[in-house]
Design goal:
The complex is a heterotetramer, with two copies of chain A (405 residues) and two copies of chain B (142 residues). Chain A is globular, with a radius of gyration of 22 Å. The longest helix of chain A has 20 residues. By secondary structure, chain A is α/β, with parallel strands linked by helices. In chain A, helix 4 packs across helix 10, helix 11 runs parallel beside helix 14 and helix 12 crosses helix 14. The two termini of chain A are 41 Å apart. In chain B, strands 1-2-3 form a three-stranded antiparallel sheet. Chain B has one domain: Sufe protein. Chain: A (Alpha-Beta Complex), CATH 3.90.1010.10. Chain B starts with a helix and ends in an 11-residue tail after the last helix. Chain B is built from five helices and three strands. Chain B is of the alpha+beta class. Classes of the chains: A alpha/beta (405), B alpha+beta (142). At the A-C interface, helix 2, helix 3, helix 4, helix 5 and helix 6 of A face helix 2, helix 3, helix 4, helix 5 and helix 6 of C. Bound molecules: pyridoxal-5'-phosphate (2 copies). One pyridoxal-5'-phosphate (PLP) sits at the interface of chains C and A.
């Protein structure tokens, strides 16, 4: 697969020195198709969105709304109005917390998250629950290291208002049974938010089939530009949301002390939209669809399995998460006994192998595992087996260099 | 369309109307009132008159002029159907409602200017409410 | 000046047909210098900011923080930590409303804005005042059409907590005496927020000299990329601000029910930063400084004065705002009697003259003027006298075409 | 530096310390305690011992090892000055504090990795607090 996309990724040629980029769960590299869609917007003449009466502005508006429709289609959203452009997955989740949950939660209500959640899908709930006197509950990990949804008694209880879970864990690569959770929640009128930040690039997302209420992700983790993300909000929930960020573009009539708002999605997009970002975002969806999300997912899963096999041959390496093959998305977290994860990543970095180390914005999970952090390798379309060899060589080198015994 | 904007038909004279409905677009400051009068004839209820007054941009005025022109003398059922089809067509695009006049077709030009859509829709929505007070008010882009 | 920058702006060559872009107050075109700084970030290999231990990530972090320092210097901020990257001016102002004012305002307190403010510097205050039981007061326009700060009795009264005013009006081109207001407010311990959205490209901003508490603007109105803006918050105010958007990158330790935060500015930048956007933003500052903000301001002011002279020769044209020359930033708003502003702009648009028409997100001002909107021409570095001729020709044509008499 | 990381000096033995201070960095899970003992001599108060314990990455451990090594046997005043200069130098860059040892200079390498700065600072800040409890705790990048 790498050979097939070699020409698409200028960083493969332009990076100084050999670069094994294995920090794809943090952010991916961008293909030319995206970079060009993006810079074309800026070269060809910019215009404001939604506000102009001249042809250029009409085109900017049309491009922006076409990007929205493209992304709605990408995630299987029945209506384009259900797609709100935000700055990032983090921004999207905060929007739900502040525009929807703040209004919905009553004292004693419960919001559930898993032990695995990224801070961006944890802190907004912690904050809003405190503010509203609601209770934040955690779906703990079971024996097999996966969130044990069945053991979370009262998960679907009468006091539960929202279940907010990631589709794919950014540390362990675990794929959560979002479809099943959404189905059970739906039957009890409980809202479900899916943090799809790690799923967007390599798993098929279909909000129609999922039947979830909210879904959030960022463009920059799916080969798209930074600074833009989206929130899918199902029409009935959209109707329950209050404006959050207020300002130009989202107000209908400004009154003396109260104002009225334009309909969604513009209601939730105050300020000048990031039109070039939206176009780049849509170009990333095009890129993914051209390769096929299924093929991409299979590719990164195979690499993760292989990395797991190779790493486990190094003594003192401990791997976290599912140990069976085919069970994890393209993410592997591990530690070398006696070494701090930062040191492993730094030695690897000096060898040109880009790994992430630390708590990965998942302190609740780290506490549970009783560690301060892990080293993480995460894969993308341009990685291949040679990257895994380099990874293992770097880990071996770190051991030699840093372990005194 | 320009002609309708410069020389709008059916403007004023709402005193005789039986049902009056108002449409506003605070985004542009457009404000329009439409009034209809219904006569009972052999073929059913027929719009004896459809008139408007108000202020707005050329698109808004032309659209009101064209709309009232088109509806006048139609049966109520036909008028309801036409207003529905026209509003749907503005919003969603696709094929023009069958058998509409060139003046109505000209209105489709505003689809190139999403910012003007609401101007063009204003009179139609007010008319639709006047004709069929139970109809759900469609939401419009801002 | 246009000749000097001709080569910098690809849109001048790439736009289909002749384009007189006079909607610069909405968004400006981008010079190659910015487009390239920007796409270089994406071509050369991306990496996450603040989180990596390999050289590429260290460079991404360094680039991002260098952009922050560059912008701090651009606005004369003494400390780089006082510059927070946001999505836009709108976002910045909402951040102050939600992270600072929500905590500071007590029932009965007052927030003052002028009659001229953009919705983005009006609605956040309307919302937060309602929420906190505070009072939103308006500095009305005086006889000369400018905000009459002296007539606003109690502006500097004991109940005033905040004065939020634009440096330059996006409709009338009026330049507010922000320095003077900030000085008087300072003496009474009142906070001042300056909405510099319209000032950033063409007026020198110096928060040190201004001595204001907050200042906000967007990159896209100063030849920079869309999707990024900044908030300057003076250190003492920064210390009074609570986290607003919460998630990855801004938390120090996640606790069971409470968390602790990293220091500013990261505390207010939850989620993956828009590194490419920041680099493009800094490149825009470089671009402005290379030409000289003083020269730029003089250029657009001269064009506005000329436009005013030429337009006032057309019968039935009414111009809003200061009528003396040299009094307005590069923005002219007008109407043609008997014509709706949208129609004027549309006719002009079809002639290749890009004008904005409508309420310009300033409904409170429109109400005061008793009009539904204006036609607005706003100027930038690449405009020249020929654009003004085209503007006037288009206005004449609109009259011929649309006025039946 | 690597040598200090693999074979840290002055580790453990905090039982004899008079003043103990703790430093934590939840970002990395680093946790360090430093302890000093002061002796009164002719030239003033002198650090009779400076030791540490805790866990952390190589940078954190090496920095603690180098710092305790450097401070031991200094007068309190000199020690206060050195910790201040070192923390300033890590943060702000610029010329190295004059006359520092090669081991101390080696610490400057972490400036290339802003993510590691806080690791390197941890021991210095704890020592600085131990030496001068009134000093303001400097804020550090996250
Ligand atoms: C005076 C003023 N303030 C605020 C804004 C809002 O800027 P943005 O839409 O980039 O957030 C604008 C521009 O629309 C403006 O002209
Ligand atoms: C599972 C998960 N959720 C949320 C986020 C936050 O994404 P962003 O930083 O783009 O807002 C991330 C990435 O950091 C993630 O991995």
């Amino acid at each position: 697969m790498r050979r097939q996309v070699q020409e698409d990724f200028p960083f493969l040629r332009e990076a100084a020195g050999p670069l094994r980029y294995l920090d794809n769960a943090a952010t991916t590299q961008k293909p030319l198709q995206v970079i060009e869609a993006f810079s074309r917007c800026y070269r060809a003449a910019c215009a404001p969105v939604h506000r102009g009466l001249y042809p250029l502005a009409a085109r900017a508006t049309a491009d922006y709304e076409a990007a929205r429709r493209r992304l709605a289609q990408f995630i299987g959203a029945p209506r384009a109005e259900e797609v709100i452009f935000t700055r990032s997955a983090t921004d999207s989740i905060n929007l739900v917390a502040c525009a929807w949950a703040r209004r919905q939660l009553r004292p004693g209500d419960r919001v559930w998250v898993t032990r695995l959640e990224h801070h961006s899908n944890f802190l907004p709930w912690q904050k809003i629950c405190r503010e509203r006197g609601a209770e934040l509950r955690i779906i703990e990990l079971g024996r097999d290291g996966r969130p044990d949804f069945d053991a979370a008694s009262e998960l679907y209880g009468a006091r539960t208002r929202l279940i907010a879970i990631s589709q794919v864990s950014n540390v362990l690569g675990i794929v959560n049974p979002v479809q099943q959770v959404a189905g059970r929640a739906r039957a009890r009128g409980i809202a479900v938010l899916v943090d799809a930040a790690q799923a967007a690039a390599h798993e098929r997302i279909d909000v129609g089939a999922l039947d979830c209420d909210f879904l959030a992700f960022s463009a920059h983790k799916m080969y798209g530009p930074s600074g833009i993300g989206l929130l899918y909000a199902a029409a009935p929930r959209l109707a329950e949301m209050e404006p959050f960020i207020v300002g130009g573009g989202m107000v209908d009539e400004v009154g003396e002390s109260e104002s009225t708002w334009v309909p969604a999605p513009a209601r939730f997009e105050a300020g000048s939209p990031d039109a070039a970002g939206a176009v780049g975002f849509a170009a990333a969806a095009d890129y993914l669809d051209a390769i096929g999300v299924g093929a991409l997912g299979a590719h990164v899963r195979a690499l993760a399995d292989r990395a797991m096999r190779c790493l486990s041959e190094i003594s003192e390496v401990e791997i976290y998460g599912p140990s069976q093959e085919g069970q994890r998305a393209g993410i592997v977290s591990f530690n070398v006994k006696g070494l701090h994860p930062h040191d492993v990543a730094q030695v690897a970095g000096e060898e040109g192998v880009a790994l992430r180390a630390g708590h990965h914005c998942c302190q609740p999970l780290m506490k549970h595992l009783g560690i301060s952090g892990t080293v993480r390798a995460s894969f993308a379309v341009y990685n291949d087996e040679s990257d895994i060899e380099a990874l293992c060589a770097a880990v071996r080198r770190a051991r030699r260099l840093l372990l005194s015994e | 369309m320009l002609d309708h904007a410069r020389h709008p038909r059916n403007r004023g004279g709402l005193e005789l109307a039986e049902i009056v409905r108002r449409g506003r677009n605070p985004q542009c400051g457009d404000e329009i009132e439409v009034g209809i009068a219904v006569a009972r004839q052999a073929r059913g209820e027929v719009l004896a008159s459809a008139r408007f007054r108000g202020r707005g941009c050329a698109v808004c005025i032309a659209s009101a002029s064209i709309a009232t022109d088109a509806l006048c003398a139609m049966t109520r059922a036909d008028a309801v159907r036409l207003t529905r089809e026209m509003t749907r067509w503005f919003g969603a695009g696709g094929a023009a409602p069958s058998g509409i006049s060139p003046a109505l077709q000209a209105l489709a030009l505003v689809r190139d200017y999403p910012a003007r859509l609401r101007c063009a829709l204003l009179a139609w929505q007010a008319l639709s409410e006047a004709l069929d007070p139970d109809a759900v008010k469609p939401s419009t882009p801002g």
